[in-house]
Amino acid sequence: MRARDLLTDFPTVTLDTPVLDAARLLADQDLPGLIVVDESGLPFSILAGTQVLQLAVPTYCQDDPALARVVDEAHADTFLHAMTGQTVRRALPGRPHELPVTDPDATVLEIAALMARTRTPLVAVVSEGRLQGAVTLQTLMDRMLGS
């Protein structure tokens, strides 16, 4: 089985997409992350849902989980609104050492190794200078386990 057999159309965002729009896309489509594309439409990075949360959750709550417990429920439910006006560029942790990008001929093991190495739940598939789609962790695991 090859990447082309596991390929899924996948939404993309740009560096200038508002983070709240990206968060809505993640939530509305139950996605593990998003492919961030550059001006030419090629993968620039992967924005995992956890990176959006990292930007949204106040640093003091990340550093000391006990502080998150003392915030009342009314205020705790609004923390995502702190991202208003911020772009995907801000949510990215920096240029990754290795992009989770492969070609349509990649094997299941190659894709799994790339996901493990890059710690991302999706791999972009590029062929002939165009983004073809992505292979998600869910699809990969379903195929590997025979689901």
Provide a quick synopsis of the model:
This is CBS domain-containing protein. This protein has helices spanning 3-6, 19-28, 49-56, 59-63, 65-70, 73-76, 88-91, 108-118, 137-144; strands spanning 12-14, 33-37, 43-48, 101-102, 122-127, 130-136.
Give helix % range.
40-55%
With strands numbered from the N-terminus, the spatial order across the biggest sheet is 1-2-3
Distance between the termini: 14 Å
User: Which fold does the CATH topology refer to?
Assistant: CBS-domain
Shape: globular
Q: Look at the structure and name the CATH superfamily.
A: CBS-domain
CATH architecture: Roll
CATH domain class name:
Alpha Beta
What is the string of SSEs from the N terminus onward? Answer: HEHEEHHHHHEHEEH
Chain-averaged pLDDT: 87
Q: What is the number of strand segments?
A: 6
Structural class: alpha/beta
InterPro entries: CBS_dom, CBS_dom_sf
Protein name: CBS domain-containing protein
Pfam families: CBS (PF00571)
Keywords: CBS domain
Highlighted features:
147 residues, alpha/beta, single chain, CBS-domain, CBS domain-containing protein, 3-stranded mixed sheet
